[in-house]
Amino acid sequence: MANTPEVSVGTPDDLGLRKVLIDGHLEGKARSAGELRRILDRAGVTVGHHDIQWLGGDCTVWPDRAGLRLTIRALMIFGFLATAYPLFHIGISDSGDALTYGGRVAGVTVLVAGVVELVAAGAAFDYWGKRRWRYSGVAVLAGVVLALLCGTSLLLLQIGERFTGYTLVGIALCVWSSAALVELVRLRAWKGLRHPQTVAIGVIISALLAGTNLAYSQIYLPYVRTPLIQSGAEFKDSNMVKGEKQLFMTVHLYVKNSGQVPVYLLDSKYWIHGGPASSGSDVKPGAFDLIYHGAFVTPVGSVLNPGEEIAQDVVVEVRDPMEHRYEAIRAQTEVYVIRKDRTKLPADYERSGIGGRKLEAEAKKEPGYPADTNYRYRSEISNSSEILNVTRGRQRITVFRVDSGEWPKVVVDVSPPDERTVFDPVNPYAKEEVNDRYGLSPVRGSTAQTPYQELLEKARSGG
């Protein structure tokens, strides 16, 4: 009997596992009498039930419910993998393609979160198995808390947005992670940590610092840095031909980015009017005659980076110049821009323009087009990061060129692809929230005005 090893079986834990010790050394954990026998056989020990020291219950106490335990393990692993998939999808996209540095940093952070979810999935297999890894419960707890944060973030980002598939993802993550968190708290999953309070404080501080840094780089900086676009016109040469029957004026038109934010030039417009020298409130409506109008930035959709300028000289013809009683000729410009750091405009926007019968047929299918539209450009756009794409859904930008009497104009609309454009003739820029989101704005240039008689005299003298 002196050589008979001392065998003891411990109290069942929350998963029904009982530690098996031989001469004080842990040999394994058993959930059933069969598993206990295999552990003893592997150790080369042959003893009867009466020779075993039973703690917390005798040989009949095996509380493991294998079906429930395996179901919970499967649900946990599935939840972690379901969380990891969108995290990797968003993280891979944003880490390389986000428009801002903060967006790329956020993408890397989301990728790390995806890796944590994969680690948690592996830990869940062990935690609801043999618990061979001391920190498997902590890893599972970290994965569940992270999944709850991801689900909450998705729902917060979608406040005021359209209902998308990711709304359901956010709801499902919140429900699953909340239920899992309650179960892990009941099981005291942090028991593997020696100083859980210190670790929790460290995690909270790190999360606050990371969140503050991302909020500063992704939210604060993009909104305090505003574009500064300058545009205008200048009169240059004038010439008279065919016995004073035609007057040709050369007008210099330009647009310059004097700020720090690059923009897309969606379209441009310039007007040449003839009328009274004064443009104050005493001038009657219709006092100015439209001589010519058009676009001066080609191709549409061009990028205007900080410090860059686009300019063009246009020649404007005035027929029978001696018959007009203009006091002055006035030139004015307007450009329509959208911030490049908040959206991606595809190259096919330039080639999307249609007019004539194609436009008429399209307008019949999509009521709400501005009256007198003669041309339009359209393209789908994406947001500055993939996380915004999945929460806001797809967007489409449409630019209309509209003939409207003495002031032909451009109307811009941003809306989801499945929503028809609703045009408000009184306030064409009524969608202030959408316009502010993408930095969409018309930029009216300075007005250039020159005396009409002076132009005629310069033309007669040969410029």
Sheet bearing the most strands, described?
Answer: 6 strands, antiparallel
**Average pLDDT for all residues:** 83
H/E order of the elements? EEEHEHHHHHEEEEEEEEEHEHEEHEEH
Radius of gyration: 36 Å
Number of helices, counting only DSSP H or I runs of 4 residues or more: 10
> What is the domain tally?
4
Q: How does the overall form come out from the CA principal axes? A: rod-shaped
Helix content: 25-40%
Number of strands: 18
> Gap between N and C termini, in Å?
125 Å
**Poorly predicted runs of 5 or more residues:** none
Please identify the structural class as seen in this structure: alpha+beta
Beta-strand percentage range: 25-35%
Record the SSE blueprint.
Layout: E1 7-9, E2 18-22, E3 25-30, H1 33-43, E4 52-54, H2 66-97, H3 101-127, H4 136-157, H5 165-187, H6 196-224, E5 229-241, E6 246-257, E7 263-275, E8 289-294, E9 302-304, E10 309-319, E11 328-339, E12 343-344, E13 354-355, H7 356-365, E14 373-383, H8 386-392, E15 395-402, E16 409-415, H9 432-438, E17 441-444, E18 448-451, H10 452-460
Parallel strand pairs: 1-4
Antiparallel strand pairs: 1-2, 2-3, 5-6, 6-10, 7-8, 7-9, 7-11, 11-17, 11-18, 12-14, 13-14, 14-15, 15-16
